[in-house]
Every structure is written in structure tokens, then in C-alpha cells.
Amino acid sequence: MTTNLPPCEVSWFAALCDDDYEQLGVPNADLASSWDHCARIVTTAEGLGFDNILLPSGYGLGIDSVAFAAGVAGRTSTIRLLVAVRCGEMWAPQLARQMATLDQMLDGRLTVNIISSEMPGEKLDGEPRYRRTAETMRVLRSLLNGESVKHHGEFVNLDIDPPRVRTVSGASPLLYFGGLSEPAREVAAREADVYLMWPDTRQRIAELIDDMTQRAARHGRTLRFGYRAHVVVRETEDEARRAADHIVAALDDEVGAAIRARSLDSDSVGVRRQAELRGSSSDDGFVEPHLWTGIGRGRSGCGAAIVGDPSQVLAKLNDYRDMGIDAFILSGYPHLDECERFGRMVLPMLDHGGLPT
To answer: Which CATH class, in words, describes the domain spanning 9-230+325-349?
Structure first.
């Protein structure tokens, strides 16, 4: 297994969206999203050798991803920043200028996570929302590549030269994008560099990789694949399972439902699939060996964790690599503590340091 595979990319998660707890559903002021707390997560992840870190984006939750990225850029020197941006919240030419400036501040270490979410205060059906996303991604990439754009679409209508400021490479940073619905898959196949998946059974992941590979090929493209999951790693499997149980031990079901409903994309196909996965799990919350869905009781979006001792977590990640996944975005509770555990116990054994191209 994992022979002759290039190094994977291993990212951590900076909890910018009010998603940091010792126990889900129990607020802790020391873990609230703030400049100081989130910057500590980033610098800790860099010190441990993580390749990248996701800066998530929400409106009613936490702090702004782009402003935070600009602020933390000068505190980092090696780690890449995967900055989440929501399509429609900023006019594409200005977004291109902003991303190019950020990339210069990072000396070429910018990657971009495109989010196809409703804008604050907006109600827009999924299909037109994804059409807007496709237009935005196409125009954004062209401008970041230094190309003039003439685009007269449903949502983006412009005839414009690229901004003077360019990325360090002169080309667009990699665009990461995820979504499980039919229109989301088509957007990814046409426009994304890295297709992100949330946890699922091994069979479903294999089916999704096969489907997306075929879709991209029909557009004359290839995709790289990323996997977003939580981790709970301890010295022994029993300790890891006890730690997982502790995360949800104080969670009331009504509180959990309220937390899940806070996200702008709480009704998406992907979120519904995470609920289905949780519903199909055994009584202890495990849907397959070392994949625990209990964590999804108290958060929207990514709803499962890889749970086990260091060798078990490593084996699970390497199994995903054998399936074709070469980028991982991991997180755990509390984010700073679990970053240190994973960075000390698993990361040194994982062949990483690669960047999907």
C-alpha cells in the first residue's frame, strides 16, 4: 500500500467560525474565534510542519477569513494558507486583486477554497447559485492568470483587463472546491483544481472519486482529490474512543440541532448526506472501522472523525491515499490541542509535503 505515491498535502483547520470546544455545545470563552486564538492555531500548525491550513468563512460566525489571512501572513514563513471565499460576496475583479495581493504577502503560499453559499440575507436556489459560482471561478482564474476578460453571463458581466498586481507565480493559485449535489459536481469538474470531500464510507468515497474523474475527463481536465475530516488520536485506541465520547458527553440534542442550523449551507445535499451517514452508524457511532460520526451531532458540515491510536489513524489516511486522495484537511477538538497531538504522533510518519498541481 502507498508505494510509489507522491507526498500528500496535510492541512490543519483554523477555527475562524466559532467552532472550537473542549466539549461540543459547551461554550468556552477561551476558545472563541479571535485574532489571538486563531493566530496561535496557525503558528502552531506551521511549527509542527503542516503543509497548509484552512481559514474557513462564515458571516454570522466568527471572524473574516481574508482579513485574518492578511494579518497572519507576516507571522508565517512556510505554511500555505487555504483562504475560504464565498462567491458573490465580492465582485470578481476586486476579489482577484485581493487574492493576488495576499499571495504577494505570502510569497506565493496562497491557495483558495471557493464556497458556493448563499450570501448573507439572500435566498437563492442551488442551481442558480452554482451557476454564479462557475462564472466567478472562471473569471477569477482568468484574471489571476493575467488574462483580459470578456464575460457576459447570467451573474458576471464585464469587459476588463487583469489587475496590475499579480501573484508571485503569475498564475492563479489552486482553487479548492467541494459539493455533493449534481450542479456542484459539474462546477468542480469544469472549474476546480482540487475536489474536496467530506467523510463517508470507503465504498461511497471510491464511487465519488470515480464519478468526478469521469466528469472532469469529459471536460478535458483532471482533478486532484481532498478529504476533510476530524481526528481524535491518542496513545491507545481505548483512550481515543474515550476522548471521542468526552467531546459529545455534554451535548444536548436540541443544542446540537441549533448548532447545525447556524450554517448558511445547513440544508445542502452534502450536509444531508452527513446526517444519513450518522443515521446508518452503529450504536457507538462508528460507521466503519475508525470512522466515528458522533462528532456530527454538534456541528454542521464535516460530520465524522478518524478515531484511533497513531498507527490506526495513519493506516486510515494511507488507505485514502491509495484510493487517490492526496490532500487532507484535518481538525479536532480543541483545535490547538489536537493539532499538537496529531502533529507529534502522526504527522512525522505520514509522507507529506506535496502540493496538488
So the answer is: alpha beta
